[in-house]
Structures are given as C-alpha cells and as structure tokens.
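User:
I would dearly like some help making sense of a protein record. Take your time, and here it is.
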Amino acid sequence: MKAKEEKLQKDGATMSEEQRARAEKELRDGARDFERARGELQDDETARRNEELSRLQRTIVEEVRNYGKAQGFDLILEQQAVLYNAGASDITPAVLSALQAHGGSAATKSAAPPVTPAKPPSK
C-alpha cells in the first residue's frame, strides 16, 4: 500500500487523469480494507478477552463456593460489597491457594503466599 502511495506521488504528474483517478481509488479502497480488517481483528481480540475473563470468573466463583461449603461459611461477599473488614475474614489467599492446587492460571500463581484461612464464627 505504501509502495502504491509512493508510486502515485512519484508518477502522478506524468499519469493521465484516468490513471491517476484509478490509482487514487485503489489507495482509498486499500485503506478502507485495511481499516476494516483492523476493526475485525480488534473485535476478535475483545471477544476472546471477554470469553477468557468469563471463564476465569466462573472458575473463581466455583472455587469460592466450594471453599465456602467446605469451611462452613453461610455467606461470602465480594470485596467491593464490603464497607469495612477487619481483615481476619479475608479468604482470598486460601481461595488462591486452592485455585493453584487445581491448576489455576499463571496470574493466580503470582499471588500472595497462602495464609491460615479464616474460620466462620462459632454458632
């Protein structure tokens, strides 16, 4: 495409009006095709990223549910839903350890080292 643009700039003065118009149209069509392909690639990348994030989220939710059941929790909240937390009930490190033990992604392997899991209050 760049070569066609350079050729048009170089030879444009000696081309007939029809040749120049044809060369300019080819450049416009090529640029349009390039932009369309770039947009499709970006759409594909976004769709793939969303699929992977969705899969990861399902895996994490499943692991949190399993952990909660195994530890006898009645309720587990996301951090964004909590206004205050003393920290003693944060199960994140334990869930990350469980994810790693089940072959979690490389992103979870770089997380903080496991700590003693939080215990639900005695009833």
Q: What stands out?
A: Helices lie at 2-11, 17-71, 92-101, 106-109. The longest helix spans residues 17-71. Residues 99 and 105 are 8 Å apart (CA to CA).
